[in-house]
Structures are given as C-alpha cells and as structure tokens.
Specification:
transferase; alpha/beta; lipid metabolism; 2 domains; lipid biosynthesis; Isopropylmalate Dehydrogenase; Phosphate acyltransferase
C-alpha cells in the first residue's frame, strides 16, 4: 500500500505534514508513504526518516487564494495535482492533502475521476458525539446545492464508509432537517425523505441540528450549504466554550484549584471535540481514495489521516462503493 501526501498544502506546510508522515511511517511499517512536494524544502526535514518514506518532487504549489479550476489546469506540477495523478495511475492507493479545498475537489474530479454512477462527490467529515463513535456528516461543503438523488447517493456512500472503515454493522442514516416529522423541511428534504426510506440503508428519519451531537445517527446527510453552516457553527461554539472556560477557571485562586480537580475530565472533553483526533474528511464518490485534512492540521492530524487511509484501503472502501453503484447502473436488486 502506498499513500501519497501533499506536504505543501495547509497552514503549517511542509513541517507538520512531514512530521506527521514520519510518525505514521514508524507506527505502520507496512505502509509506503510518498511525500509530494519541493524536494529541496523537504530533505532538511527528513533526517532519520524510516525506509518506507520517499519523496516525489513537485515544483509548484496550489495556494489557498488560487482559483481552483484554473490552478489545477495550469499547475500540472503542483504537489496536489501530482499526488492526484499518482492515485489515478494506481501508483498510490490514496492521497492526503490539507490544501485548497476547492482545488482538491477539482483534482478529484478532473485528475482522479468519479466512480461510475456518482453524480457529485461529497466531502464527508467526522463530528463528535455523546456515544464516542462520532457522526459522519456529508456533504459539508463540496457542493452548495444538491438534488434529492444526490443526497440519496451521499446516504449510500456514507453508510458504506461507516461499515467498512468504522466497523458499524448497520449504520443509522439521518437527514438533517428543521423537524423530525416526515413532512417537515424544504422542497429538497421533502423530496429526499421517501428516497431514503426505500434505499438499501438503515434510515433513521429526520434529525434536527440540536440532536446531532447527541448521537441521533451514525451518518448525517445534508446539502453542502446547510452542512457547512452547521460545521462552522459547531466549530465556533466549541472555540467559544473552551475560551470561556479558560477565563473562568483562571479568574481566582479558588477557581484555579477547581480547574486542577476537573482537569482530567476537561482534557477528555477537549480531546473529543478536537478535529485532529478524527483524521481527515474523505471525498466520497471519487474513483480513488482522496482525503482532505483541515487547513490548520498539525502532525497528529496527518498521522491520524494516514491511519484512516490505511483502514479504508485495507477494507476496500472505494471498491465497495463502486460495486454498489454498478448494481444501481445495471438495475439489479439492491
């Protein structure tokens, strides 16, 4: 298994991606890691690198402010496009990047290509939940608008992912909505509801945003517009809560003592809310494993992304999704 990592993308490139890759290479010696980027900048960071790490030179970098389609088409020798090409040509089993999200989506579509039968790929990310198993939410921003049929495809892909990667035997799939009743929502969710009822999944019905973190489902389906607003709201709320707690617990000597007593519990809570613990967001529907790390990912996040990719490849995630949609295309029983 070979995993390509775009080490030039993200806020802390290339140091953190390289550090995370080295930690992952030592943890899982059965995985070959190809670091894609400017070799001159990478070599000083690779002292003592294990034998299962190699460098694939790429002279260009797609920047955060680059227009996605133009950048992918013009910067053929960028680290992101080169990593995508390695997946396309089967020289790599997966690719990981913390770079420009739009450009990575474009790389997936134009370089790697879609799975037959998939209308639009979806960006799926793990959200924390009370049950500790987390919730896979998709789409979280790859497509601002979606059709009922596309939401149905998201639901099927998300269900396969949770089964193959997380080992959940019968994942519960929920539809993000403003109420739990079948007739609630806008035209999109109303039209999607009966499709999900008939799909080869365990459909748990509509899920309100306030119930998401309570673990109301294992897979949450939504369009990219609503999903991205929900994600940013959760990130903002978590940031505010931790900042407010820090202010209160450092206010007096007594509160500092209380903080010392509560520290183990607070640390567990922070870990549960930490995106770096969940690795990366897979771009489901692409004919190759493409994983998107948060732009500010550190070494731990990249290491966890490699762990995630390793599990997905070993459990044949992309093949399972392709097989399911081949049945749909052929009109076979689901």
């Amino acid at each position: 298994m070979n995993i390509a990592i775009d080490v030039m993308g993200g806020d802390h490139a290339p140091k953190e991606p390289v550090q995370g890759a080295l930690e992952a290479a030592r943890e899982w010696p059965d995985v070959e890691l190809t670091l894609v980027g400017d070799e001159a900048k990478l070599r000083p960071l690779l002292a003592g690198a294990p034998s299962n790490v190699r460098v694939h030179h790429a002279a260009e970098t797609i920047e955060a402010e680059d227009e996605p389609v133009r950048a992918v088409r013009r910067k053929k020798d960028s680290s992101m496009v080169v990593a995508g090409t390695l997946v396309k040509t089967k020289q790599a089993s997966a690719m990981i990047s913390a770079g420009n999200t739009g450009a990575l989506m474009t790389t997936g579509l134009l370089v790697v290509g879609r799975i037959a039968g998939i209308e639009r790929p979806a960006l799926a990310s793990m959200l924390p939940s009370a049950s500790d198993s987390g919730i896979l939410a998709l789409d979280l921003g790859a497509n601002m608008d979606a059709s009922p049929q596309q939401l149905l495809q998201y639901a099927i892909m998300g269900s396969i992912y949770r089964s193959r990667v997380d080992g959940i035997e019968r994942p519960r799939v929920g539809l993000l909505n403003v109420g739990t009743e079948p007739g609630k929502g806008n035209e999109l969710t109303k039209a999607c509801f009966p499709l999900l009822e008939q799909a080869p999944i365990h459909f748990a019905g509509n899920v309100e945003a306030r119930d998401v973190l309570k673990g109301a489902c294992d897979v949450l389906v939504c369009d990219g517009f609503a999903g991205n607003i929900m994600l940013k709201s959760l990130e903002g709320a978590a940031s505010f809560i931790f900042s407010a707690l820090k202010t209160e617990f450092t206010r007096t000597t007594l509160t500092k003592l209380a903080a010392g007593i509560l520290k183990p519990g607070l640390s567990r809570f922070r870990k549960k809310m930490d995106y770096t613990e969940y690795g990366a967001a897979p771009l489901l529907g692409i004919d190759g494993l493409v994983l998107k790390c948060h732009g500010s990912s550190d070494a731990k996040a990249f290491k966890n992304a490699v762990r995630q990719a390793r599990i997905a490849v070993n459990n044949r995630l992309v093949g399972a999704i392709s097989d399911e949609f081949s049945k749909w295309e052929a009109g076979e029983p689901k």
